[in-house]
Amino acid sequence: xxxxxxxxxxxxxxxxxxxxxxxxxxxxxxxxxxxxxxxxxxxxxxxxxxxxxxxxxxxxxxxxxxxxxxxxxxxxxxxxxxxxxxxxxxxxxxxxxxxxxxxxxxxxxxxxxxxxxxxxxxxxxxxxxxxxxxxxxxxxxxxxxxxxxxxxxxxxxxxxxxxxxxxxxxxxxxxxxxxxxxxxxxxxxxxxxxxxxxxxxxxxxxxxxxxxxxxxxxxxxxxxxxxxxxxxxxxxxxxxxxxxxxxxxxxxxxxxxxxxxxxxxxxxxxxxxxxxxxxxxxxxxxxxxxxxxxxxxxxxxxxxxxxxxxxxxxxxxxxxxxxxxxxxxxxxxxxxxxxxxxxxxxxxxxxxxxxxxxxxxxxxxxxxxxxxxxxxxxxxxxxxxxxxxxxxxxxxxxxxxxxxxxxxxxxxxxxxxxxxxxxxxxxxxxxxxxxxxxxxxxxxxxxxxxxxxxxxxxxxxxxxxxxxxxxxxxxxxxxxxxxxxxxxxxxxxxxxxxxxxxxxxxxxxxxxxxxxxxxxxxxx
Length: 524
Prior knowledge:
By secondary structure, the protein is α+β, with helices and mostly antiparallel strands. It has 14 helices and 24 strands. The strands form six sheets. The protein has a six-stranded mixed sheet with strand order 13-21-14-20-18-19, sandwiched between helices. Strands 1, 2, 22, 23 and 24 form a five-stranded antiparallel sheet that branches. A hairpin with a 3-residue loop joins strand 10 and strand 11. The longest helix is centred in the C-terminal third of the chain and has 17 residues.
């Protein structure tokens, strides 16, 4: 059985950001160089392997998708100028003027090849089953100018899936090996230099005329440089000094950058901070009474402030804005803070205080191994310590285990040596979470927490069979069912600061709106 967990979890943690961008007063200037900081190297540039946010940010300069999304969450044309949707398929009619960076026309066969390559088991694409639904097939009709994406059964978000497919065209279709360090797409920019670990340089394609409706590449910068700057403090210093035009900040440097003269900024949601309980049969958190008690022991509002260093917002759901289904699935559905009720519930469940204060049941101590990533900043570390204190106060013994991302994925997928895990999630469609929140448990499947919420599964099954808008109530109810059962606990909507100096730009779901990039007058 296919288990794309390690890569998929990276996708959950890092893939998606909300809509955001920077604006500035005054005019804009064409030509010149726009320089943006990436916090890590994007790695292999084949779109079929693009799971990390930094990779997709990079790819968005050189590749187009079938459809896009505006700030209100509405699907808008991109490579496809129109489409017809049926419950189990969508047929896209492509624009006739789009060309690849090597001059070749973009054809329906290119689109079909891009999709079918991802879904081919031999590809081992980490986005298959996450961004591209399992079972999807593509069929091209070059004479009619159409490509059809189909599913074995009705699928709510079959149209929206077109947002996630970077279309490879031209030479890259025949020889995908060239895509590791070069690009072969129809985007507004083409990669001209790749120096892994240092920078990636892109040149504008002035012939690009198939961007979002009402946009133009005419006044865009001639060159875009993505500079690898792993240290946020260094990136902040470079922006303030004018050596960078754009950065994304998570941590404490946000305050001084926001206050710096000439800097424009936007606060953007990027992921949800939350924790999951392991529900394996041998775990204390298999018992819903224990999960509820542990949740009641925590002041989630205080924890949110700690985990986000005061920059987060109250969570209202698992999917980031702009959401296809609007609504608050969190408020009123998470067990309220009540330490006394938590202690009483553990008593009733048979967990009695031992000589050292740690609760014991059937000779087994209430020991929780708390797993978290050390790469998410000081706030997540402080949150771990806060949880250890809160749970210790009601008689749980908490062992903290900080790990880098690769070790965290190994623990979740293979060794299963955890009881509670802090795992950020950032996705744009509720369907992208189903494999992680239900179905076969790890290591056989992607259900890393061994969740088995029958109400969630039933609601998702119903919602999946109808078009997205018709199924939204069910999708929202499904999320709430997870929270009511304390299967997972949403804590905070994490935000980032998009800051710019000498430039303006927009990003949607972590990807550049390439026709929006402009250098402001006076920038070099």
